[in-house]
Amino acid sequence: MRYAIIAILIYLAVALQTVFADVIQIGRIAPQIPVLVAVAVLLLHRGTGALLIVAAMGLLEDTLWPGRLGIAMAWYLLLGWGLVEIAERFDLRPLGRRVAATGAFACLLALGVGATRSVLGEATVGLAWIATSAAAIGLYTAAAAVPFWFVLGWAESAYYHRRAHYQI
Amino acid sequence: MNCAMYGSRPTHSFAARRRPLLVGVGLLLALGLALLPPGLADAIRTPMAAALMPAQRGLIAVRRAGGATLSHVRAQLADAQTTGRRELESKRLAEENRRLMGELQAARDQVRLLAQRDRQDLPLLAAKCIPARLLGTSAQDYLVRHQLLDAGQTQGVQRDALVLRTAKPLVDRGMQTGVAEGGVVLAGSCVWGKIVAAGPHTSTVCPMTEPGYRDLVRLAAPSADGRTLRFGAKGVLEGTGEPLARLRMIETTEPVSEGDLVYSMAGQGFVEVPLLCGRVVRVESPHGAGHWDIWVEPAIGDAPEDLAILCPTGPAIEMARRPSASGAVSGSE
Fold first, then answer.
1. CA A108 remoteness from chain centre
2. Structural domain span for residue B95
3. What is the pLDDT of residues B254-294, one digit of tens each?
4. Residue B265, Cβ neighbours under 10 Å: how many?
5. Which of A68, B79, B175, B245 could join B34 via S-S bond, C-beta 3.0 to 4.6 A?
């Protein structure tokens, strides 16, 4: 059931990104809606299953854009692994840390994918432009993550309250 | 947040240990995908794109609906802004119009005052109204009994001459009060008759309907709203002894219709108010005749109580006859 809900969320997030990216973008910078879902899965689902899910998301994102497959998948996997490891060592439950983690994930993902494609000759833009746009994407995604994590945190809190009530 | 409430995070030591292996396998898989030939990559890409298509279509429909709603809202806002701007503009223009009307009125007043100040040409003639009362039969009998006649030697009256009573009305004003023959007898601003004989103390009036009455008149048609008059042809109004006076000398080429008003021209030049004689009640055009036969109902029917005799007077002439401040007499009149 949980995986079905996550699959639907991923499907909708990717569809939203493809349809509404030009509406919500500022200049050529748009927030990465799939990244929001991926970080939420990594922080809330936890474990190896989350890594498999974000790897699948990376592959799905690879299929949306022209070029070689597997690049986004590899970066999703690497960054997801790193985030899971950090989440096990540090408390990332406060809203600010979740937002920061989301922004950093989006920034590093854009940087990694852009740099890899640039190195492989699929992108003609320079590394400086890639770094700048990655930072902007990270900031914009972090800003979009604030209401996202606020609502998710409220739902999470309500869920744990109800569970504690039933346990009593 | 309270960590105790949410429970402690499990460490999953076994899962954590196998995570690098999983990541390594995933990276190898990604490398393999990256090395796939374009044909095989497209074989993976196409079904993925097809799977996303329904959600994309739905979201595109939502986007279009949202865009239409947004554009509608924007149009409404723009309309509201435009309406607000127009209302403000209308208020501003109304205010400016009021101000300009005030300025125009002030300018008109100023022009009128200047014209009055600079006006030096007094009218040659002015109207003088002499109030008069109609003398009834008792009053006339009294005058006869006391042998007071409005005639003397200057009128050619001789001793033992016969005195005949006339049927025409008599008023209690005569030449001593400035009444002269031909003076128009008014009731209000309507013509009732004319002075046909003026004695020293009394005068004989010929009403409009009596034989011997003649006056130069002008037709006037009231406008549709009844506020203005459109003056037309001139003619001669005559008394016939009938209840209706007859208007003559108006050519059949002139437009005349029943209900037209008839105004006297007796006061032209010294009376500013038009003097109403009556109203056209019958218009006939005899075969082959060049003039209309017009019958006029007098505005004043029965003999009125209060009358006024209209006489022209000449203030400019009188002023000219008066000695000036330097003692000189100006003018030869």
1. 10
2. 19-120
3. 888 888 899 998 888 777 778 889 999 998 887 777 888 89
4. 16
5. A68
Determine contact: A93 vs chain B, CB below 8 A.
yes
**Beta-bridge partners for B197:** B204
In B, which residues are within 8 Å of A93 by CB distance? Answer: 1, 3, 6
Least confident of A12-16, B85-89, B113-117, B178-182: B113-117
Go through A53-66 and write b for each residue having 16 or more CB atoms within 10 A of its CB, e for each that does not. Answer: bbbbbbbbbbbeee
**pLDDT tens by residue, B17-38:** 788 888 899 999 999 988 888 7
Residue pair B194/B200 in contact (Cβ under 8 Å)? The answer is: no
| B28: three-class secondary structure by DSSP | helix
CA–CA separation, B101 and B78 (whole Å): 34
Q: Is residue B48 part of a domain?
A: yes
Contact present, B303 and B135 (Cβ < 8 Å)? no
CB B194 within 8 A of CB B216: no
Q: Are both B182 and B246 inside the same structural domain? A: yes
Give the residue with greater pLDDT, B316 vs A71. A71
Considering the domain boundaries, does residue B185 fall inside one? yes
Of the residues A77, A85, A98, A163, the best mutation for testing chain B's interface (the one with the most B CB atoms within 10 Å of its CB) is A77
* ipTM rounded to 2 decimals: 0.82
User: What is the predicted pLDDT for the residue at A29?
Assistant: 85
Q: What is the mean pLDDT of residues A76-89?
A: 90
Determine the Cα–Cα distance for residues A143 and A133; give it in Å rounded to an integer. 15
Look at residue B119 in the predicted model and tell me its pLDDT: 62
Average pLDDT, chain B: 80
How many structural domains are present in chain B?
2
**Residues of chain A contacting B33 with CB distance shorter than 8 Å:** 59, 62, 68-70, 73
Q: What is the mean pLDDT of residues A71-81?
A: 92
Query: Are B168 and B189 within one domain?
Result: yes
Which tokens go with B73? 């809202």
Given a cut of 90, whether residue B199 has pLDDT beyond it is no
Q: Yes or no: say if B228 and B274 are a contact pair by the CB < 8 Å rule.
A: no
Long-range contacts at B106-112 (CB < 8 A, ≥ 24 apart): none
Domains contained in chain A, CATH given: 2-167 (1.10.1760)
Contacts of B29 in chain A (CB under 8 A): 70, 73
Positive or negative torsion for Cα A77, A81, A86, A92: positive
What band does B324 get if pLDDT is binned at 50, 70 and 90?
Answer: very low
